[in-house]
Every structure is written in C-alpha cells, then in structure tokens.
Amino acid sequence: MQQERCSSSDRPLDPGCLQARDAERSADRPACAPVDFPVAVVLPAGGSGERVGLPTPKQFCTIFNRPLISYTIQAFERLPWIGTVVVVVSKENHDLMLNIVQKFNHTKVNVIHGGTTRHRSIFNGLQAFCSTSNSLTPKPKVVIIHDAVRPFVEEDLLLKITLAAKEQGASGAIRPLVSTIIATSSEGYLDHSLERAKYRASEMPQGFLYDIIFQAYQRCSEFDFEFGSECLHLALQYCGVNAKLIEGPPTLWKVTYKRDLAAAEAIIKETLSRSACIIAGAEAEAAELAKTLQKNLNMMETDVIPCAKESNAEYLSKTQNFIHLSTTGSNFLGVLEMVKHFEDTDHTRLYPVVIVWVQLNMTKQSVDSQKTDELAAFRSLASEVIQGNVLLYGIQIEHTKVPEQWERSVERLTQITVALIRDRNAALTGQLLHV
C-alpha cells in the first residue's frame, strides 16, 4: 500500500517563503553538518477534523488551491538531510493523498493506511520502515513525528530536535502555557489550579531514535493505543528514555478551528509578499519609474532587471511577484515570455505567481479611448494564465512632468501594487486599474 516516489528530478522551485530561514541559506550553516545519519518523518493525517466544522478534513483544506498538508510536507522535503516522509491517511483518503503527491511532485513521500486512533496510525507509519526489501523506506536512525496541520515548522527547530533525539533518545518541542490550567470538581466547581510557570505545553515536532519509539509502541497497552496522546510519555514509560525538551517558536501552532485556516492563509500571503522583481522596458521613463518604485517598496526585497529574457532566468525563479513596466503601445510579449518560462520550470506548481503589468501612458490619451480589442486581449490573457496559477493584474499610470502630481501618482501606484501582491485576490485578475 505504499506509493512509489516520483522519479522526476524536476522539483518545483521553492521560494522558501514559509520558513524563517530558507533552504538555500541553511546549506551554508555549519549547524547542518552534524546530520550525517538517516532521518525520516512520520505525518499522521488520518483525522476527520471535526473541530474545524467543515466537510473536508482540515489537512486537505486548500489555501491558494493547495492542500494544507502539502505545505507541511514541503517544509520537510526542502531539507536535504531528511530522506523519507511517511504520510499516514485513512483508507477513504488514500487516493486523494496519492493525487496530492503526484500533483505537487512530492518526491520523498510514501503514503500508507492509518489506524482507528492517532497512536495506531503513528505505529503503522513506523512499521513502514520495517521492510528491509523496500528501498523507498529505509530504516532511519532518527524519526521525526509531526502533525500534518502544522505547516510552519522551521529548519533550526527541526535540527535541534533531530540532534537532541540522536543524543538523548527522544526530544520534543514545548511552548509556554497561554492560560492557567485548573481542575474542577465533579460538581463543576473549581478544585485547584496549577502554577503556570512550572508547566509547558507539549507541541510538535518530536524526535526519537527509531529503535526507541518503535520498541515503545510494541510494548504499549491497548489503553495507550486507544486513549494515549503523548509519544514522549510512551518512550519514558516503556523504554525509560527521558526526552530533551526544546522551546519552539510561536509558529508551531496548528490548524484546529475554521478560523485557523484564515490565519494560515494570512501568514502565507504575508510571507509570499516579502520580495518582488521589477522588470522595466528600455524606455528611459520606464527605467526611472522602476527606480522610484524600488525605493518606495522599502518593505520588500526588490530587484530591478531590464527585461524578462532567458538570461534573467535566475531572477524569474527566485520570487513569486513581478512588476512589469512598459509604456503606452507595448504589447503583452514580455508577460507572455514570463508565463512560458514559468510553465517550463514548474515555478507556479507550489505557489501562485503575481504579475502586475504597469502601463505608463505617455500619450495623454484617456483610458476610455483605448482600443477595445487591447483590453479584451488583456482580460483574455488573465483568464487563461490564472488556470496555471498566475494572477495577472493591470495598472495604468498617467505620465506627467508636474513633480507634485507625479509624486502622488507614483505613491498611489505603490499602494495599489503592494495591495495586489499581498491580497492575491483572484477576483481582480484581468481588470485594468487606473492611477
């Protein structure tokens, strides 16, 4: 029942937006050097998500047309020192999960069936490594257990959890308690409260020497399988291994309720909008506007390039936001070349790309006098590329030599551009906004 890993080497380009430190930089950090042993991940994803109150289990709810679990998987797959990610799902969601693996090109994933409880599912996931004949799931030295609905896990924490597990046998992330814990009497009255400073909330991820956690599950009782909730406790109770506890960042929260999906979407939007590439035409006015925009977009990391030719493929592949500047009369050739590049490189598979096409009107013609077929072509293009996960917006700005008026126009252009990149509102694609 295991899914073969996709053999394609063409990994979707990952901007590393969802992590505090991206994978490209992490490869240069000396801290990564100690991971010279096999590491695997088990993601139990068999829950029904009753608390979310939606017909779709929360791990399969989509953000930007991508299931939440895919974001979580990518957080692990992007790390070269993690070998295999075993995703454990219910039988009824097995085919759905296989489709996600294929659609988003998750090359390290094996999908297996879960059990009737969380602990049974985790045990099923651990047993996937027992088959010595299956090269897709080699036995790891350390296994990380994580929640499928915690997509914002950082590499630094994963590294600390992994190394502590190798040294201690078990490790786990913790967070300070937000609320005071109280006990109630059988009659519904306050019995006593706990001193919050002495306690911590147990979170995910948790790491274990594989032999330790597998042995713990082999020894645990039916009561543990049915009602247990803490893997670290099983390692302590059945193997005598006291876990090293590591305080994690606030991003460890998991999607539990419907409102958490909106919060996750907001985080993804914010992180995706941290950088932009400004592409300017050859005209002097467009080049000057590009410089001014770059200065105004001080909340983003921006690069300015002269055109979207093949020689600039590096710039096209490292961000999800593009501002394409051209003067009146320019066609969509530059935008079309960008879209073609994205199709060839699979750049839009994991995250949507935003292209803001800014047309600098030098002719003093009113917007209403533009040719109808030009507007129709723009809307048609936007409607076509949105199917490929590209959001195309249009803005027209009137050029003027009056300094005060031009400054106000550029400021307004900046505000609209930032809003389009941050909101990523598909409903606005194909519209030509005016400054």
Descriptive notes:
It catalyses: D-ribose 5-phosphate + CTP + H(+) = CDP-D-ribose + diphosphate; D-ribulose 5-phosphate + CTP + H(+) = CDP-D-ribulose + diphosphate; D-ribitol 5-phosphate + CTP + H(+) = CDP-L-ribitol + diphosphate. One of its GO terms (molecular function) is D-ribitol-5-phosphate cytidylyltransferase activity. Pathway: Protein modification; protein glycosylation. It comes from Cyprinus carpio. The structure is a single chain. This protein has 14 helices and 17 strands. It is α/β, with parallel strands linked by helices and 435 residues long. α13 (372-385) links the parallel β15 and β16. α4 (118-127) packs across α6 (210-219), α6 packs across α8 (231-239) and α10 packs across α14. The N and C termini lie far apart (57 Å).
Structural class: alpha/beta
Q: In what order do the strands lie side by side in the largest sheet?
A: 5-4-1-6-10-7-11
Cα-atom radius of gyration: 25 Å
DSSP helix count?
A: 14
- Please report the distance between the alpha carbons of the first and last residues: 57 Å
Overall geometry comes to elongated
> Main β-sheet: number of strands, strand sense, barrel status?
7 strands, mixed
Average pLDDT, all residues? 84
Count the E strands: 17
Tell me what portion of residues adopts beta-strand conformation: 15-25%
Roughly how much helix do the residues carry, as a percent range? 25-40%
Low-confidence stretches: 1-33
